[in-house]
TrEMBL record:
Nucleus keyword on record: no
Fibronectin type-III domain sequence ranges: 259-350
Pfam families noted in UniProt: Alpha-amylase (PF00128), CBM_25 (PF03423), fn3 (PF00041)
SMART domains: Aamy, CBM_25, FN3
Matching Gene3D superfamilies: Glycosidases (3.20.20.80), Immunoglobulins (2.60.40.10)
Protein name, entry field: Carbohydrate binding domain-containing protein
UniProt region (Disordered), positions on chain: 341-365, 377-399
Organism: Streptomyces omiyaensis
Leader sequence segment: 1-27
Keyword Membrane: no
Polar residues bias locations: 382-397
SUPFAM superfamilies: (Trans)glycosidases (SSF51445), Fibronectin type III (SSF49265)
InterPro entries from the UniProt entry: CBM25, FN3_dom, FN3_sf, GH, GH13_cat_dom, Ig-like_fold
Cofactors, names only: Ca(2+)
């Protein structure tokens, strides 16, 4: 087990630096020492003449970067290692004049300050007084620099950016390599231009320096305690990044007069009374900032719309009307490109589908999340159940348990069950049409523009689910996949043609092509009686331009059934079946390497080339559809396998733009995007790789990269890996300032929050999860938005392949922590009754689903249930009534009640400062007239010191405490129980249960 680590929080003096993302700003400055009062003694009656020696040392042979003289006057003591720095004398010579007192000579050695010595072969040098030279071991008495001007000293011009700090004064405290530090606080720097300070520094013969910066009032930036290493010439220091041989950041930027190139590849496709427009990204010497889409046609005349991405959905147009579009690119200087070639489309009839919904648009931290595999939750319509090609082989047929069993109708019917538990957000697995041999989970997307018909029913479409949830005050978070499609590609983008002969071995599997029949996962092909039709995929004729080697020839191998296997029979990244511009042509070799972001994860997951504009447009256009339907957020699958630059440049801005366009700025602000960055390690950073760590994806980029997305991804990867874990931005957004809430700074937020993988990995023990969570929180942009769960449809804690089986008491303790600590508590369906505990979560079609952690839950929901409010069940009958009586159900209901009543537990920052105890902390949230302050301890007792005086009431027991001396002591409530003392609180919330009592 990895030991837990705790990190002390900084005091008030550190707040400015930490808020700016620079750790270590208040560490003791290098070279600093306390002031020393020097006592003056009376001078002797007569001064004694001192002997001196000026030692010259030859540098050309050694060619060290620094030179030190370590010596002892005859009969005296040696200087402290490495001695005293020598200074430039003239070409190829350095010198140092030293006082010998009454001694007539000295013993000497020389060194470079880093462990390399010249001690005269172990004998030391015996030197006299006056001018002395030491050259290649030979001692002489002369001044080699007589009549020779000293060489020019090396210089360093340093620019320092205080833009993220707000300092009004900047000092540089430094020492040349091998030299001494300046006196604290160092040399004042001069304002050079907005946000930049400048100072030219003399280095003597040194070729580099160590430096730290301060504001003259005790606040330091010493590079997290490592100091900055800066070379000669011009360097810049900005947000803890040193750029050598830099250009002058204050030099005037020449005006931008060059317009972008005209957008190419414009296509327009009509869908009802909407037109989806996409185009290839334009290029510009300084970057394109937006596009202008001009529409002509219909009765509205010419309409110009500004767009931030390379896809635009024009909606609510006139029926059966021709429209023509052109696109121009615009850069930051306002230069406008020539218009693109026109693209036209003619609308059809207005669809009769239900009106689009609208997201609830409230702070997502208020909403605990219930996560369901829709196809395994509750079956409302047996007519859309489908078993697929693996129905018998998997053992599902023997259990009468088709993989596609649950549906939206069943979920709508049981929304009151979820609401009765107290959850106000439902995370559903991907809804797009899937295509593979075993695709009930939704992660094998085929038609990203179509909802899978196996989930829908008459009166229970996906839109109906969204609207039904919203009517109950509940949100829908849709699981989305940008990284990959099914192995059969993506309809409308690219689908591979593969070899398939209908011989006596394979005719059972290869369907004959049926003209006019189209796969939708649901419709039964009357000729074969199958819903998993594949006649459109197979061909015995090699497609034009195919590069798959030995098309249709036997490989020499056999399938599991003993059938002959042919070349190009199954899609793979290296077979040449997929165009490289749309799909990546490789398998992942290193899961913490660059290839994990640009290669296939699995044979069923064809990896999109997400840096290609055509792919980006296809996905943006698809997910715009679901934004328009009113979903409240996206859970992003396999987020780590797409470069952060692509998220930050393309997908995240496109989401924000579309939500803003359709539903307004407030809805966009609260549209919740949380990514799965699967880092299955117990460390703060994933095996030291920042690019593969969850918190990395919560930040914007720190510098500009190539305009080409593929090159930019590589540049960013290399740059951030070189910067390492110690040079990443930090944040105080999750932390209290003493007892005070402070406005969070989200100016560098990427737009993506994340699942808290580190807490997930450590939830085998709640205390361990708590310690690990705290240790990472300064590296997220805002950890109060982290999605926190114990187990999921993939893994349990410690990367266990089984559903959590730590016991009911441990579950209760985990929940008590999740519902009161920072982040958004999330529960995988059925965990409220320890459903399938200890069962293998997923074994594919090699075992029945009924024996796994993805088993069908509907039997536990049979009957009726009505929720009068969150955590309040007004009526229940049948098996669901029994389910609702289980101890963890009662526990989570009351936890949701308490959390919903105390804003500090939803959105508050936290601190453990001044608190003794195990899982104990204080939280506060302040906004307008709301000021919520809570003291929490889970399982164990705690003492809180330095807290505001006043009346505190425990939300669990109703116990009232009056604090007059800033201290409150709370006894241990017991495992799984907790205490929540709220300043001026509402009193006891809910009724005592099996754990909260």
């Amino acid at each position: 087990m990895t030991p837990t680590r705790t990190r002390p929080r900084g005091r008030a003096l550190a707040l400015l630096g930490v808020a700016a993302g620079l750790t270590g700003l208040v560490a003791a400055p290098p070279g600093a020492s306390p002031s020393t009062a020097v006592a003056l003694s009376a001078a002797p009656a007569a001064a004694v003449a001192e002997n001196t020696a000026t030692v010259h040392y030859w540098t050309k042979t050694k060619n060290w970067s620094a030179y030190n003289l370590h010596y002892a006057p005859d009969g005296g003591t040696w200087t402290t290692v490495p001695g005293t720095a020598m200074e430039a004398a003239c070409t190829d010579w350095v010198k140092k004049t030293v006082s010998l007192g009454s001694a007539a000579g000295l013993q000497a050695t020389f060194n470079n300050g880093t462990g390399t010595w010249d001690n005269n072969g172990g004998r030391n040098y015996a030197l006299g007084t006056g001018n002395i030279t030491v050259k290649d071991g030979v001692v002489a008495h002369s001044d080699p620099c007589a009549d020779t001007p000293p060489p020019a000293a090396n210089k360093a011009t340093v620019y320092y950016s205080s833009a993220s700090l707000g300092w009004s004064t900047v000092n540089v405290h430094y020492r040349p390599a091998g030299g001494a530090w300046t006196t604290v606080p160092g040399l004042g720097m001069t304002a050079a231009c907005t946000g930049w300070w400048k100072r030219e520094l003399d280095l003597g013969t040194a070729t580099s320096l160590k430096a730290a910066f301060n504001n003259g009032n005790g606040v330091w930036d010493n590079n997290g305690g490592s100091d900055y290493t800066i070379g000669t010439g011009t360097s810049t220091v900005r947000d803890r990044v040193v750029t050598a041989n830099a250009s002058d950041p204050c030099a005037a930027t020449p005006p931008d007069t060059q317009a972008p190139t005209a957008p190419a590849g414009v296509t327009a496709t009509a869908d009802g009374v909407s037109v989806l427009l996409s185009w290839n990204a334009a290029t510009d010497d300084r970057g394109v900032t937006k596009y202008q889409v001009t529409r002509v046609g219909g009765s509205t005349g010419t309409v110009v719309t500004d767009v931030g991405s390379t896809v635009f959905s024009d909606t609510n147009l006139a029926e059966r009307t021709a429209y023509t579009y052109t696109v121009k690119a615009v850069d930051a200087a306002g230069n406008v490109s020539a218009a693109s070639a026109p693209a036209s489309a003619t609308t059809g009839d207005r669809p009769t589908a239900p009106a689009n919904g609208k997201p609830l648009g409230t702070d997502p931290r208020k909403d605990p999340i219930y996560f369901v595999l829709t196809a395994r939750f509750h079956d409302g319509d047996p007519s859309n159940n489908r078993g697929g090609s693996q129905h018998v082989k998997s053992g599902n047929a023997a259990n009468d348990d088709p993989m596609f069993r649950g549906d939206f109708k069943g979920l709508i019917q049981k929304l009151d069950y979820i609401k009765g538990l107290g959850f106000s957000a439902v995370w559903v697995t991907p809804v797009v049409l899937n295509r593979s041999d075993y695709d009930y989970h939704g992660y094998h997307g085929y038609d990203f523009y179509k909802v899978d018909p196996r989930l829908e029913s008459a009166g229970a479409s996906y839109q109906d689910l969204i609207d039904a949830a919203h009517a109950k005050g509940m949100k829908i978070y849709q699981d989305v996949v940008y990284n990959h499609s099914s192995r059969w590609g993506a309809k409308g983008l690219f689908t591979p043609t593969v070899y398939g002969v209908r011989d006596t071995q394979w005719s059972w599997y290869y369907d004959e092509k049926q003209p006019g029949f189209e796969y939708d996962g649901l419709t039964i092909d009357t000729k074969t009686g199958k819903s998993y039709y594949n006649g459109d995929l197979w061909s015995t004729a090699e497609p034009a331009g195919n590069t798959c080697v030995n098309w249709g020839k036997p490989t020499g191998g056999k399938s599991a059934e003993g059938y002959t296997v042919y070349n190009c029979q199954w899609p793979s990244p290296t077979s040449g079946m997929f165009p490289k511009e749309l799909y990546h042509p490789c398998w992942i070799g290193n899961w913490e390497g660059e290839d994990s972001r640009s290669c296939w994860l699995h044979e069923d997951l064809a990896d999109f080339n997400t840096e290609n504009a055509t792919v980006q447009n296809h996905l943006i256009g698809a997910y715009n559809k679901y934004i328009d339907m009113g979903v409240d957020g996206f859970r992003v699958d396999t987020a780590v396998h797409i470069p952060r630059t692509t998220w930050n440049r393309r997908f995240l801005p496109a989401i924000q733009e579309r939500v803003t366009q359709r539903h307004g700025a407030e809805a966009a602000k609260n549209f919740f995007v949380f990514g799965e960055v699967a880092a299955f390690v117990n460390d703060k950073w994933n095996r030291g790789s920042v690019n593969h760590s969850a918190q990395f994806f919560t930040w914007k980029e720190r510098k500009e990269y190539d305009a080409d997305d593929a090159r930019a991804a590589l540049e960013m990867y290399d740059y951030e890996q070189q910067q390492g874990t110690g040079n990443q931005p930090t944040s105080t957004n999750a932390f209290l300032n003493g007892n005070s809430y402070h406005a969070p700074d989200h100016s560098r937020f990427s737009g993506m929050n994340v699942i808290d993988m580190r807490m997930h990995m450590n939830f085998g023990d709640a205390s361990n999860a708590f310690s690990n969570g705290k240790d990472s929180d300064d590296s997220y942009n805002d950890a109060t938005y982290n999605v926190v769960y114990v187990d999921s449809h993939d893994y349990g804690p410690n990367k266990s392949s089984e559903r959590y089986t730590g016991g009911t008491d441990a579950w209760a303790e985990n929940m008590s922590l999740m519902w009161t600590f920072r982040g958004i508590p999330t529960l995988y369906y059925g965990s409220e009754i320890e459903f399938q505990k200890g069962q293998k979560i997923d074994c594919g079609p090699s075992c029945p689903l009924a024996t796994t952690g993805r088993a069908y839950y509907g039997a536990h929901l049979a009957g009726t249930v009505t929720a009068s409010d969150f955590s309040k069940v007004s009526e229940a009958s049948g098996q669901v009534a029994t389910t609702l009586q289980q101890p963890l159900v009662k526990h989570v209901q009351r936890l949701n009640e308490i959390r919903r009543a105390v804003p500090a537990l939803q959105m508050g920052q936290y601190s453990t400062e001044g608190i003794s105890g195990g899982m104990a902390f204080k939280r506060r949230y302040t906004s307008g007239s709301t000021d919520s302050f809570a003291l929490v301890t889970v399982s164990g007792g705690a003492t809180y010191s330095g807290i505001p005086n006043g009346t505190y009431t425990d939300a669990v027991t109703g116990d009232v405490r009056t604090v007059t001396g800033g201290t409150l002591t709370v006894g241990a409530p017991g495992k799984g129980n907790l205490r929540v003392y709220v300043l001026n609180g509402p009193g006891k919330i809910g009724t005592a249960g099996p754990y909260l009592k």
